[in-house]
Design a protein that fits this description.
The complex is a heterodimer of chains A (429) and B (181). Chain A has a two-stranded antiparallel sheet with strand order 1-2. Chain A has a two-stranded antiparallel ribbon with strand order 3-4. Chain A has 429 residues and is mainly alpha-helical. In chain A, helix 6 packs across helix 7 and helix 11 packs across helix 13. Chain A is built from 15 helices and 4 strands. Chain B is α+β, with helices and mostly antiparallel strands and 181 residues long. Chain B is 28% helix and 23% strand. In chain B, the strands form 3 sheets. A 4-stranded antiparallel beta sheet of chain B has the order 5-6-7-8. In chain B, strand 9 and strand 10 form a beta hairpin. Classes of the chains: A mainly alpha (429), B alpha+beta (181).
Chain lengths: 429, 181
């Protein structure tokens, strides 16, 4: 918290000398050692630390990969194959980088759902939430451009489809598309600039992460009870309590990470991306990476080209304004008996959208017979996606404001320490 | 109190109007400078001169067999050259304009007397995927990405694509040779 006085005392002469010139050790001590942390944080709160590790892994492996990768349409694919076959431990570094992207998104989704459930976006943490949304958006852009670099079939045609989304904007879309691609099709200029930006954006993300942590330390952390820190009894020092808890979370997460890297490194990828890019043939079943699938499903749910793009970007934009859509006075859904069920449905809907995004739109979810032409009748993926898309937007635009006004929340504890004592009493009794 | 200050200000040249002028002039110069610096930095992303100098392609129609299509690369995109069967031509010509999302007659999309050869940019007008030959509900093309159906004239009939497959500019150099672009 901002009003927490610094307790750092430089012990050695060097520390004293430095502290008077650049108090960087003091900053680190006050932020990560003696920082007062709510004592009721659960394991869902370890994903912030996990995400920092993810970003570091991506930057380190990425810088190494650039030492061997060639951003040229004729050589990119082969240079990636060379990394896999000839470069010492190249296979390991590339698999860590490729699966690291998936792990990063998995962690960020958990982190976002946690924020949603415990109301971490509510006043005074709106700026903290928006900075997080910016990081998420930058992650999507970075991951998309990174996926283009191996210049496989999915890379190429993914780049074609996603850049053409911009072309859907009326009047100015065409010139912007040409400007973005650097030509009249996805080609060498596109690959070159995507490579440049893919290298840049992670450092921009790191910058926004610093702002995100700064904002977090100004307002203080939210916690499962959703009540602010009121006294010293509500907190424990960051070190050792949060450091150790985060450490365990990180170790468990890295075990999951290793499971993918060492035992199923291509499970989350697509086989077609091991075919060199061919502008003349689009793969029969083109899908983005799994973490983009919910947004891809929303794009396809809308029959109109421009409105589809609007809906897809709207699905991300609506997350930014969430702090002003929630009308409830209670922060944590632990004390919101109605809203928590809508939250559970929302999580299922998001998973459902991801599932639909990976299917062919006209395929059947289930059929109840056939019509006179012999075509099956029933629910196809387009209509299922439309239903799920409706709930996705309704959750933010209708349910959030409406339930907040109508719901009778459970009694909220007066303080964090009271919440903990009540929990203990319940367990004993 | 205010009088002497004002006098004092006038004497040493702190006329507020002159200050305002300096602020506005400096601000305008800064905005102009940023614009002048930004213009080349933005413009470099547009197609370079060599990219703009796109070659035209010549193609011998004798390579295409009736009922088939040949795909060639033209300006970084696929180009479809389809030799249509009489049945396919008739299907394309018989369609009522009122049934079309992007109304255009088949005659407008081919050269007169050469109705059998349909030359199109093979890039779906939805999001740029390459449609599959001979598939879909209308016997023309089907885009695997988001399910757009095109007829045997390359016109959009069903699905999210807003426009017909584009017809590039081309001329017949001889009876069987075309120059595209």
């Amino acid at each position: 918290m901002s009003d927490h006085p610094s307790t750092y005392e430089p012990k050695t002469g060097v520390e004293k000398w430095l502290d008077q010139r650049l108090p960087i050790v003091r900053l680190a001590y006050d932020s990560f050692v003696d920082y007062p942390t709510p004592r009721n944080l659960n394991y869902w709160w370890t994903f912030g630390g996990i995400l920092s590790v993810c970003l570091m892994i991506q930057i380190i492996t990425g810088i190494i990969l650039v030492m061997h990768y060639v951003p040229h349409v004729d050589m990119a694919f082969n240079s990636v194959e060379r990394i896999m076959r000839d470069v010492n431990y190249g296979w390991l570094i590339r698999y860590v980088h490729a699966n690291g992207a998936s792990m990063f998104f998995f962690a960020v989704f958990v982190h976002m759902f946690r924020g949603l459930y415990y109301g971490s976006y509510k006043a005074p943490r709106e700026v903290l939430w928006i900075l997080g949304c910016i990081i998420f958006f930058l992650m999507i852009a970075t991951a998309f451009m990174g996926y283009v670099l191996p210049w496989g079939q999915m890379s190429f045609h993914g780049a074609v489809v996603i850049t053409n989304l911009i072309g859907a904007i009326p009047v100015i879309g065409g010139p912007i598309l040409t400007w973005l691609q650097g030509g009249f099709a996805v080609d060498q200029p596109t690959l070159n600039r995507f490579f440049s930006l893919h290298y840049l954006l992670p450092f921009v993300i790191a910058g926004v992460v610093i702002l995100h942590i700064w904002a977090l330390h100004v307002t203080g952390q939210n916690n499962p009870a959703g009540v602010e820190i009121k006294s010293k009894e509500d907190t424990v020092p960051f070190t050792p309590y949060a450091t150790v808890k985060d450490g365990l979370g990180i170790i468990l997460f890295l075990m999951l990470f290793s499971l993918f890297v060492f035992f199923m490194p291509n499970a989350l990828g697509h086989a077609d991306n091991y075919i060199p890019a061919n502008p003349l043939v689009t793969p029969a079943h083109i899908v983005p990476e799994w973490y983009m699938l919910p947004f891809y499903a929303i794009l396809r749910a809308v029959p109109d080209k421009f409105l589809g793009v609007v809906a897809m970007f709207g699905a991300i934009a609506v997350i930014f304004v969430l702090p002003w859509l929630d009308t409830s006075k209670v922060r944590s859904m632990r004390y919101r008996p109605v809203m928590r069920w809508f939250f559970v449905i929302f999580v299922v809907v998001c998973l459902g959208l991801g599932w639909c995004g990976g299917q062919l739109p006209d395929d059947m979810v289930f059929s109840i017979g056939t019509n006179s032409d012999g075509n099956p009748i029933g629910l196809n993926y387009v209509w299922l996606t439309r239903g799920l898309t409706f709930y996705y937007f309704a959750f933010f635009l209708i349910i959030m404001p409406w339930i907040g006004l109508k719901e009778d929340p459970l009694p909220v504890p007066a303080s964090i320490s009271e919440a903990i004592l009540a929990d203990h009493a319940k367990k004993k009794g | 109190m205010s009088e002497p200050e004002k006098d004092h200000g006038t004497v040493v040249g702190e006329d507020p109007n002159r200050r305002d002028f300096i602020y506005i002039a400096a601000g305008a110069a800064a905005v102009g400078a940023v614009g002048v610096i930004a213009a080349p930095l933005v413009s470099q992303m547009n197609p370079a001169a060599d990219t703009l100098a796109m070659a035209s392609a010549e193609f011998d129609l004798g390579k295409v067999q009736e009922g088939m299509q040949v795909v060639i690369k033209w300006r970084g995109k696929p180009l479809f050259v389809r030799y249509r069967t009489p049945k396919e031509i008739k299907e394309a010509e018989d369609v009522k304009l009122s049934d079309l999302k992007d109304p255009q007659t088949d005659a407008d999309r081919v050269k007169k007397g050469k109705e059998q050869y349909l030359i199109l940019v093979g890039s779906c007008t939805h999001l740029g995927c390459v449609p599959t030959f001979g598939a879909g509900d209308f016997g023309g093309w089907f885009c695997p990405c988001h399910g757009s159906h095109y007829d045997t004239s390359g016109r959009i009939r069903k699905g999210p694509a807003p426009l017909n497959l584009a017809v590039p500019e081309y001329t017949y150099l001889s009876d069987t040779k075309v120059k595209i672009g």
